[in-house]
Amino acid sequence: MGKIFAFVAVLVCFALPVHATRIKDIAAFDGVRDNQLAGYGLVVGLNGSGDSDQTKFPVQSLVNVLERMGISINRTDVKVKNVAAVMVTATLPPFAKQGTKLDVTVSSLGDAKTIAGGTLVMTPLRGADNQIYAVAQGSVLTNSFAFGGQGATATKNHPTAGRVAGGALVERELPNVLAGRSSMRLNLSQADFTTASRVAAAINKQFNGSAATSDGGSVTVQVPSDFADRTVDFIAQLENLEVVQDVPARVVVNERTGTIVMGEAVKISAVAVSHGNLALTIKETPKVSQPAPLSRGETTVVPRTELKVKEEPKRLSLVPAGNSIGDVVRGLNQLGVTPRDLISILQAIKAAGALQAELVII
């Protein structure tokens, strides 16, 4: 157990030095963001592993596709297992131009066993405004397989979802949100008043009087007159400025896995902790009473229960006040408990008011 905490202490000690971070890594300009696209399509060419006849909408979609190609067919006559209905999703990055290729994710909607080896038929991808921004088509790669018979099956990875690398082409461009603007808003990834103030100070140091803060989540930046026609150059210089991001004191606990992560700003006051384990053992050993031969007696079972209760003696352990995360880890390491027990101890220390950090349980 001591090795686990020693390993954690080593990892945290590497994070103690304070390093500056580029603005581009902790903030983004308002309007410069990704957009989600989605569309409904068909994967064809499957080797009998497509949707069954019980799934109605793949047949309807296939008939509609054939009718658009000039082939008339009765829907009741269509019974194919080489087609699967899928949902196609993609992410449209900012400033994407016509012809830019995007990776798409293909996921089965019906009861297809696998879509490995299939081909995605031309699928329009729409945005939240219901406009078509890209069209996807290509071979689906799942990096998986699914085989089996009546008695056994073998499956690797997830055979009903795959990707088409570079399978979508951008058909509609997003408007340029930076063209002709004299001011822009820089949004922080994590709202914090201290970090916002440091970002504004770093910008004003490089570009005198260009930045101002109105809240802890954004910084308003005025484009200097020297960069009136060179907005891209101004942004390139601005986003490479370095600031020290303020990190809140926070302890994150995952009770399901027993994982505990502490930030470098976590401090603890002096507190005495006692944590003991109670072991209860119950053992059933019934005794059988067997009558003598030819005695016409009856066999009886006499129940017998052995009960043992063991409680490990634990003394109060003093966890000294810690000025750094290393001191906190060393103090908690003195208790010699498991990570799951430590979760309960941290909750109790927080309830006692000795933990100067936010305790987040996920």
Describe this structure in words.
- This protein is α+β, with helices and mostly antiparallel strands and 362 residues long.
- The chain folds into three domains: 20-31 and 177-243, Gyrase A, domain 2, CATH 3.30.1360; 35-170, no CATH class; 250-361, no CATH class.
- The chain has six helices and 25 strands.
- The protein has helices spanning 2-13, 56-68, 193-206, 231-239, 325-333, 339-351, and strands at 21-22, 27-29, 35-44, 84-92, 101-108, 119-126, 132-139, 145-148, 153-156, 161-170, 183-188, 211-213, 218-222, 242-243, 250-254, 259-262, 267-268, 271-273, 278-284, 287-289, 300-302, 305-311, 317-319, 355-356, 358-361.
- The chain has a six-stranded antiparallel beta barrel with strand order 3-4-5-10-7-6. Strands 2-11-13-12 form a four-stranded antiparallel beta sheet, with helices on one face.
- Helix 1 (2-13) packs antiparallel against helix 5 (325-333).
- The longest helix is centred in the middle third of the chain and has 14 residues, at 193-206.
- The chain is flat and about 105 Å long.
- It starts with a helix and ends with a strand.
- The model is unreliable at 1-16 (pLDDT under 50).
